Amino acid sequence: MLPLKHLWEEKGSMKKFNILTLGCQMNERDSETLAGMLTEMGYEQIDDRNQADIAIINTCSVRDHADRRFFGMLGQLKKIKEKNPGFIVCVCGCMMQQQHIIDQIKEKYPWVDIIFGTHNIHRFPRLLGNVISEKEKQIEIWEDGGEIVEGLPSKRLYKHKAFVNIMFGCNNFCTYCIVPYTRGRERSRRPEDILAEIKRLVDDGVKEITLLGQNVNSYKGEGGVDFADLLRMINEVDGIERIRFMTSHPKDLSDRLIDVYRDCDKVCSFFHLPVQSGNDNILKRMNRRYTADDYMELVRKLREARPDISLTTDIIVGFPGETEEEFEDTLKLVEAVNFDSAFTFMYSKRKGTPAAEYDDQIPEEIKHDRFDRLVETVNRCAADRNARFVGQITPVLVEGVSKSDEGCVTGRNPQNKIVNFPGDASLTGTIVNVKISEAGTFSLVGKMV
């Protein structure tokens, strides 16, 4: 095969790409890597896939909605392919780690040119080169991750903040979740590689990092370094001003990690701690390995260590077998914790997971009713928590001009609250003090002081 650089020069018209990312921050980070590799090859990223030479859909398999959206998008890409036979369609991500999905694509969507999974993203340039030079479809799925590949390029969405993977995979096997089957077993990066990446990001102007993993607090680095140790190391890196992370499992939240919140000033006053249910029987059927009381004790410790902490969570309603009384336990827990916000979901079957085979599935109308009641409770708590900021001055890292008001900018404070206030694009990437005058359910409004 010809060297890739020669191929890009030879195919001078193939210079634009579009990426659609479905799913979590891990997928967003993978898309940044794909964009980085394509940029190094001489391609330009654009928002309009109709004008692109390459379209990539980075898929998510956690929710049924993402599945339906994905197949709908494939149908739209067929129309572009019919008009432009040289248009290259690529699909990757978690859905591609499931054989029945690959079989469906091969049978019903023959215009897809490249299929690859979550473990071999670094192989994408080679797969693309093969399609261009050999005019043959490329399907390459690795069942396991193997060694972690370091040094891959990245094209970040923001100049001032960045995602940093610290580990990959999950060992928990919650009965509703497909992630362990699509992302593989847990693998942690070496602490020195993580620190080296963060220092490079600082040199490039990054002020805030978000550490990523399916379960960051089960991180196990070389030399016995755990997640609490890693956070303390990063807290000492000059130039980093804010440290966030996503996401954590309650069963692995140690007192040592909670102490980090008391000791490390750069770790933001924010913790996302998925609870999923407030009922012990449902938690057991979910294989979560903690009780509602265990969770409440963790909340108590976190708020004792950092009184201004913002707590958010994930909650599933309508899990198989959930009774009305068990659902009401979840509502009671939400009110007891008084969450700052929550990602709320109606349970949906994921083929290959134990819960999909349970014979006591909940009717859709009951799921919808419980979902609506849960959202109402969560929103009431969120509005209550936001109200505490009125009259306070809070530091905000500005992300850019507001999409709804060109005379305002938007950013986030250490508690991860969205803050809108008058300003212009020159403030992007800076941290400014804002006095809060109004608090809504989902954001705060103020004025720079």
Features:
single chain; 449 residues; alpha/beta; six-stranded parallel sheet; five-stranded mixed β-barrel; 19 strands; 35% helix
Write the layout of secondary structure elements.
Blueprint: H1 4-10, E1 16-21, H2 25-40, E2 44-45, E3 54-59, H3 64-83, E4 88-93, H4 99-108, E5 114-116, H5 124-134, E6 138-140, E7 161-165, E8 167-168, H6 179-183, E9 187-188, H7 191-203, E10 208-212, H8 227-235, E11 242-246, H9 255-263, E12 270-272, H10 280-285, H11 292-305, E13 310-317, H12 324-337, E14 341-346, H13 364-387, E15 393-401, E16 408-412, E17 418-422, E18 431-439, E19 444-448
Parallel strand pairs: 1-2, 1-3, 3-4, 4-5, 5-6, 7-10, 10-11, 12-13, 13-14, 17-19
Antiparallel strand pairs: 8-9, 15-16, 15-18, 16-17, 18-19
